[in-house]
């Protein structure tokens, strides 16, 4: 065995030629001394650096490059990590959602007609964390091709509301337009009919043979703002105008609604205020912010403020700036444009526009949690426990338990309007599957949801 003497020099420690097969060491390098059965090699002053470099290169090329995987160690390391991650994912990430209902009848209806709420939700294994799901969804999900028919309707104050219709005239199951079921869709805070989550719900409705109409909030879809008024989660006057218009246009067609994020908040507030006085057969809301105080507090944490709050604030300001000529007559737009958070934007603009004494008064009125007890039609709510926009501790579990017309589905993961699933989540999400099954159940099995109280 040829060994290298341990000397203080790092280069000497690399000379382990016994690991290199069929390599002979020049005698001019070494002087030997025998001590028992051990041979110790000492590097001579005539050390040839070029030869050392050549031999080290040979060692690296023939031993080190195969040492990690060729020896099986690297493969075992990767395999072990994969097994550990898989175990963690299956035990801690992939879980059945929690289903809560104020009555056994609604709960049983969901189990019979919406089996997705009883199945294990497997979020995309490489992006299951809430913030990542929230950030990636707009980029990874495809946008189905949808051709809309736009309609502008007048509001009571002289403003106009933009509706985008998908008529689904080729519906094989509902060929008669007068009785074709209609689904009203409400986008989020700055969303329009072109959002991927809206397009996917239109696609799901098309497959069911239903008609869709998207309610675009004032000033966000390219239409001219005729009066100095936009929108907020608390005010449901425009939504009532839209629902009345749809009902008059298609009086014989069953109508239900689905709202996402702020659209869900607006829908829940509307249903709470109207009680039995609505023509909607039912509703479903996704990722709604139930307590606005808790939502804004969550979004003002440093990381979430950086990732979401500042961006949404800039989007709101951009919308205001587009309509500056009509808005600056009533509001200090320069002051609004200096807002750094959604809360500051609402203090300087939204709460003032809708006549609230303080921003806290506006937030209290905008929080659907206070109106759930008076909802009188079937309303299904889907939230993720890791949604930073609507934190898990603010989800209205106890309020839902008090009203037999309500049901709540809580997934452990999914983020805000995320709910991605599958290896590469380009197509429909868990949220889309919940929407499709519940919409079909309400339209086609709605008689079973009568007299839930």
UniProtKB/TrEMBL annotation:
EC nos: 3.1.1.32, 3.1.1.4
Primary residence: membrane
Role noted for this protein: Phospholipase that may play a role in phospholipids remodeling. May selectively cleave myristate (C14)-containing phosphatidylcholines through its predominant phospholipase 1 activity, cleaving preferentially acyl groups in sn1 position. In parallel, may have a minor phospholipase 2 activity acting on acyl groups in position sn2. In addition to (C14)-containing phosphatidylcholines, may also act on other medium-chain-containing and oxidatively truncated phospholipids.
Annotated protein name in UniProt: Phospholipase ABHD3
Enzyme's top EC category: hydrolase
GO cellular component: membrane
Residue stretches making up the AB hydrolase-1 domain: 181-274
């Amino acid at each position: 065995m040829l060994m290298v003497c341990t000397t203080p020099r790092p280069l000497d420690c690399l000379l382990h030629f016994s690991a290199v097969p069929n390599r002979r060491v020049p005698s001019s390098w070494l002087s030997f001394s025998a001590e028992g059965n051990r041979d110790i090699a000492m590097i001579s002053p005539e050390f040839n650096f070029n030869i050392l470099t050549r031999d080290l290169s040979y060692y690296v090329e023939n031993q080190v490059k195969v040492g990690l995987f060729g020896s099986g160690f690297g493969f075992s390391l990767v395999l072990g990590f994969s097994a550990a991650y898989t175990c963690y994912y299956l035990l801690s990430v992939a879980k059945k959602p929690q289903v809560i209902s104020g009555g056994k009848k609604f709960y049983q209806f969901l189990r019979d007609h919406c089996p997705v709420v009883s199945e294990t939700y497997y979020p995309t294994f490489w992006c299951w964390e809430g913030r990542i799901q929230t950030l990636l969804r707009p980029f990874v999900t495809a946008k189905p091709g949808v051709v809309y028919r736009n309609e502008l309707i007048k509001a009571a104050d002289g403003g106009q509301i933009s509706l985008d219709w998908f008529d689904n005239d080729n519906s094989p199951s509902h060929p008669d337009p007068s009785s074709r079921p209609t689904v009203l869709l409400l986008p989020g805070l700055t969303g329009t009919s072109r959002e991927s989550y809206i397009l996917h719900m239109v696609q799901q409705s098309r497959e069911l043979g239903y008609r869709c109409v998207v309610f675009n909030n004032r000033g966000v879809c390219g239409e001219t703002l005729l009066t100095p008024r936009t929108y907020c989660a608390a005010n449901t006057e425009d939504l009532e105008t839209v629902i009345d218009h749809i009902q008059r246009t298609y009086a014989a067609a069953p109508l239900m609604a689905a709202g996402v994020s702020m659209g869900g908040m607006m829908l829940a507030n509307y249903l709470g205020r109207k009680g039995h006085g609505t023509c909607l057969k039912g509703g479903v809301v996704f990722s709604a912010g139930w307590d606005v105080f808790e939502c804004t507090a969550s979004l003002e944490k440093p990381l979430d403020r950086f990732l979401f709050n500042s961006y949404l604030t800039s989007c709101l300001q951009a919308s205001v700036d587009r309509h500056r000529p009509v808005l600056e007559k009533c509001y200090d737009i320069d002051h609004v444009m200096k807002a750094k958070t959604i809360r500051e934007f609402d203090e300087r603009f939204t709460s003032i526009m809708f006549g609230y004494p303080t921003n806290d008064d506006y937030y209290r009125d905008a929080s659907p949690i206070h109106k759930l007890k008076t909802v009188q039609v079937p309303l299904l709510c889907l939230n993720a426990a890791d949604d930073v926009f609507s934190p898990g501790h603010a989800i209205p579990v106890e309020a839902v338990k008090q009203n037999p017309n309500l049901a709540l589905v809580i997934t452990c993961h999914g983020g805000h309007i995320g709910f991605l699933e599958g290896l590469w989540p380009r197509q429909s999400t868990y949220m889309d599957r919940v929407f499709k099954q519940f919409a079909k159940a309400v339209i086609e099995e709605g008689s079973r949801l009568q007299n839930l109280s």
